[in-house]
Amino acid sequence: METVRSTRRRIDEHDVVVGGIRLHVREVGAIHAPPVVFLHGIMGHRRDWDVLIDRVGERHSVVAVDQRGHGRSEWTRSYRLDDMADDAIALIEHLQVAPVPIVGHSMGAMVTLLVAARRPDLVDRIVLIDIVPESLATDFGAHMPAMFDAMAAASYASIDDAVAEWQAGNVLARTDLLRNYVAHALVTGADGRCRWGFDAVGLRSFAAGVSPDELRAAADTVACSTLLVRGEHSPLTTPDQMCAFARRFTDVRTVVVRDGGHDLGVEQPEAVADAVLKFLTPAHDGESTR
Predict the structure, then answer these.
(1) What are 111-170's pLDDT values in tens digits?
(2) Which residue(s) pair with 128 in the sheet?
């Protein structure tokens, strides 16, 4: 895969209708450079990994997607991972960029895995950030419905109030990065108060229809080069789980991000960007590690 370093950069935001769903897309990076598709995690959006996307965009053209129910994309009746995988497949076909690397975080990593398993012809290589099949069965997963109900009802007098709430729940998050995430995740209502812009009620069931065993089976079929990234202090993955997951892939590398947890986009995005750029460089092909 050829890499390009270019001083000619672009930022383009637009809507794409695929499979009857309107998705909002942000394209960032070097003009005429090899493309990379980025899929955010649950409650995320096209801007919460700006540091990584800007860094990767020095050599690539990054297509960052607001997945259904997030950001500026359309809300729907179904948020199954299967549906999101269909969205990503349809988007890649629409953009005519295949085969393309896909970088996914958390929920987006599960979507990436399903796309690579179902349509290997569309995928050049994949990066799965801080997710393993067992992540679906963690305490976070068990508490997710109640958390989403609370977020659907939440409102804030200011962005600062929302940032403070999230900062209290993640001591590893950097305030400047967290503010960037929150600023693009909130919408202002007619009453002047800030509310979360994603479909918190609908997204309660995003993992329906995909079991840990199905994610393992998907990994068993992936033939393309794969990078697994884990936060050192992640509550959703353990070292043993990541090692077991890695053994399912034909060609795999693993990276542990020091001083990071699960929300690496607001904790250690530079370290993740370094790992992704190294992985996307052809000179490192064939250096499989476990």
Answers:
(1) 999 999 999 999 999 999 999 999 988 777 677 788 889 999 999 999 999 999 999 999
(2) 104, 228
Closest CA to 23 of 86, 75, 73, 80: 73
Q: Is the pLDDT of residue 259 over 80?
A: yes
Residues with Cβ within 8 Å of residue 49, at least 6 apart in sequence:
38, 40, 64, 105, 265, 269
Under 8 Å between Cβ of 116 and 123: yes
Contacts (Cβ under 8 Å, ≥6 apart) of 121: 98, 99
- Considering the chain, what is the average pLDDT of its residues? 92
Residues 6+ apart with CB under 8 A from 73: 21, 22, 23, 24, 65, 66, 67
Residue 282 CA to residue 287 CA, distance in Å, equals: 10
Buried (b) or exposed (e) across 170-202, using 16+ Cβ within 10 A?
A: eebbeeebbbbbbebbbeeeeeeebbbbbbbeb
Cut 0.70: pTM above it: yes
Three-class secondary structure of residue 42 per DSSP: coil
Task: Work out the end-to-end distance of the chain between its first and last CA atoms, rounded to an integer number of angstroms.
Answer: 23
